[in-house]
Design a protein that fits this description.
The structure holds two protein chains of two kinds. Chain A is an alpha+beta fold. Helix content of chain A is 32%, strand content 36%. In chain A, a hairpin with a 2-residue loop joins β3 and β4. In chain A, 30% of the residues are buried. Chain B folds into two domains: 1-35; 36-194, 3-Layer(aba) Sandwich (Hypothetical Protein Ychn, Chain: A). Helix content of chain B is 48%, strand content 12%. In chain B, β1 (39-44), α3 (49-64) and β2 form a beta-alpha-beta unit. Classes of the chains: A alpha+beta, B alpha/beta. At the A-B interface, α1 and α2 of A face α3 of B.
Chain lengths: 76, 195
């Protein structure tokens, strides 16, 4: 069972949420990341990040401006 | 045909095989050398706050996306690498010292390229940034360094602006280089930006 990590990126602006995700990914590769963010660029950025780092986006939900993303981080 | 086989002598074939395998190895190396690194180069030329901010934002995102980042600081941007330490230096000429006094120290002290109004415009912009939780340039710069960006500074520019190693932020981690270093890195990279 993969480790589940919660990451709160609310009120963070570009590029901070992506940097935080990258840090979590370096720290615990292979785990599942549950990210909360409300930067309008976040959804597009997180998809691009996942594509270039070979992570898998399991789910993205939008509730108003708040985006919740579940990412399966790549194993190193 | 049978007689042909007799004519072929073993040492000759071995020699041909050897030279062929050498050739293949050389070609393999050539292909490997030509393969591009997953890296981004940014030439930071402008010493203006907004342009530096753009460079650092791209650098931070690229590092987060797992790319290597090389930041080349040249001309006016060199002042962004200056620490807050004294600008006096015994080896500096009078003109270099004067230049040093007029140049800002560190990215946070750089002026805006537009709407600066003697620092008032920048002050207002920083206020808006703070209200919206947009990161300050000094924090972003430190983050980019911590995430592993390689920082290069143009040697000629640092002489021009009278910057010694001891005056640079993280002086020991900064590579003092010339144009050839940039060019060789640029040939290997996928992307080079001039900001």
């Amino acid at each position: 069972m993969s480790q589940l990590i919660e990451l709160n990126c609310l009120s963070m602006k570009c590029p901070r949420p992506i940097i935080e995700i990258a840090k979590a990914s370096r720290k615990s590769p292979g785990s599942i990341l549950h990210v909360l963010a409300d930067d309008l660029a976040f959804e597009s950025d997180v998809r691009a990040w996942a594509e270039s780092t070979k992570a898998t986006i399991m789910n993205i939900e939008k509730d108003g401006e708040t985006v919740t993303a579940q990412i399966q981080l790549r194993n190193l | 045909m049978d007689s042909n086989i007799d004519v072929l002598n073993a040492p000759d074939i071995q020699f041909q095989l050897h030279s062929l395998s050498e050739e293949v190895a050389a070609l393999k190396k050539q292909v490997k050398d030509q393969q591009q690194e997953n890296s981004v180069n940014v030439i930071c030329f402008s010493g203006e706050w907004d342009r530096l901010f753009a460079s650092l934002t791209i650098a931070g995102s690229a590092l987060a996306m797992g790319m290597q980042v090389h930041l080349f600081f040249t001309f006016w941007a060199v002042s962004a690498l200056r620490g807050d330490g004294s600008v006096k230096g015994s080896e500096k000429s009078f003109l270099q010292t004067m230049f040093g006094r007029m140049l800002p120290s560190g990215p946070g002290k750089a002026p805006l390229s537009k709407f600066n109004f003697g620092g008032l415009g920048k002050c207002l912009m920083r206020r808006i940034m703070k209200q919206n939780n947009i990161e300050d340039i000094d924090v972003l710069f430190q983050e980019v360094v911590d995430l592993g960006a390689q920082i290069h500074v143009c040697e000629t520019s640092s002489i021009l602006f009278g910057l010694g190693c001891d005056e640079l932020i993280n002086g020991d981690q900064i590579d003092r280089c010339g144009a050839a270093t940039f060019l060789s890195q640029a040939l290997k990279s996928r992307m080079t930006l001039f900001i």
